[in-house]
Structure to design on (314 residues):
């Protein structure tokens, strides 16, 4: 029988300490109506060079899907990531690309031997068009349940008619709160709300397998200082300090994925697609190129904390 549930996780003393480091995480986010005052996003961060790259269809579709771990696959394009998490009870898709590449992601799933109709959940790291432009497609065509934080459900609804980055927005299925978990088969995903890039950025932790080895993996969206935005930088300081505690727990976080794959794939500076190429050439005794030393993610968090502190002082 399939398990379809969201349940509260933080019941331990450690959780209380962590939440104290991230004050915004304790605010309940029960419905999109909590965020009625959001203004349309300034998409100025997507400059003309990036737009040209996004619109280069030959470049974007040149990336083929591939297996990263035994239970995790890449089904994205050159610029934007999309990850397929495979469980014994169904599939979970993390981010869904954007027009005109939504069906490219669907074909990538099929190319890997999976049926997109088996996607039970589509999760969004945040509410921008390039990460959740395809959520409604999976919901309407395959019956997938769509999950996002309340703040970013609202963000998507506010931004959906943007003249350049318009998207169809899915119906609200799941409003994910900080500390919730999603369980499907043997897989449990833990959610952390880490605002900054948007009001409700969703970071998530899950397990990946490489033969007999299992690793803690994370998609972390709570870093990156914003010049001139005092409160966002204060919020990100909380995110970064909280994750320094989480990353150092046993076992440590050794695998980190980004929402965009044409930058460094981890704090060690090895780009995502270079790791892919190393993986394809991996010998039987070679280390997995997507698995970092435990210090790598913590070093990244510490450097990002210093950048945020400097931005606050400025």
């Amino acid at each position: 029988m399939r398990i379809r549930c969201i349940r509260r996780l933080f019941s331990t003393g450690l959780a209380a300490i962590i939440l104290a480091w991230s004050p915004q995480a304790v605010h309940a986010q029960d419905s999109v109506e909590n965020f009625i005052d959001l203004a349309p996003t300034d998409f100025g961060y997507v400059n003309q060079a990036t737009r040209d790259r996004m619109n280069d269809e030959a470049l974007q579709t040149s990336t083929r899907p591939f297996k990263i771990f035994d239970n995790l696959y890449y089904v994205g394009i050159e610029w934007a990531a999309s990850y397929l998490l495979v469980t014994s009870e169904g599939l979970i898709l993390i981010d869904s690309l954007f027009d005109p590449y939504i069906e490219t992601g669907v074909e990538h799933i099929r190319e890997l031997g999976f049926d997109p109709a088996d996607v039970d959940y589509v999760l969004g790291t945040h509410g921008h068009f390039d990460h959740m432009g395809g959520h409604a497609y999976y919901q309407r065509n395959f019956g997938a349940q769509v999950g996002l934080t309340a703040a970013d459900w609202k963000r998507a609804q506010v931004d959906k008619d943007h003249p350049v980055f318009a998207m169809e927005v899915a119906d609200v299925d799941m409003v994910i709160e900080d500390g919730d978990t999603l369980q499907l088969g043997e897989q449990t995903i833990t959610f952390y709300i880490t605002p900054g890039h948007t009001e409700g950025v969703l970071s998530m932790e899950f397990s990946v397998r490489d033969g007999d080895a299992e690793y803690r993996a994370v998609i972390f969206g709570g870093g990156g200082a914003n010049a001139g935005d005092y409160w966002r930088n204060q919020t990100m300081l909380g995110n970064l300090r909280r994750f320094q505690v989480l990353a150092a727990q046993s076992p440590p976080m050794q695998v980190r994925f980004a929402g965009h794959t044409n930058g460094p794939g981890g704090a060690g500076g090895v780009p995502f697609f270079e790791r892919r190429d190393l993986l394809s050439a991996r010998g039987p005794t070679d280390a997995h190129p997507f698995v970092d030393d435990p210090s790598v993610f913590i070093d990244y968090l510490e450097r990002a904390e210093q950048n945020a502190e400097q931005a606050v002082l400025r």
Q: What stands out?
A: The CA atoms of residues 267 and 300 lie 5 Å apart. The chain is about 30% helix and 20% strand. Residues 294-313 form the longest helix (20 residues).
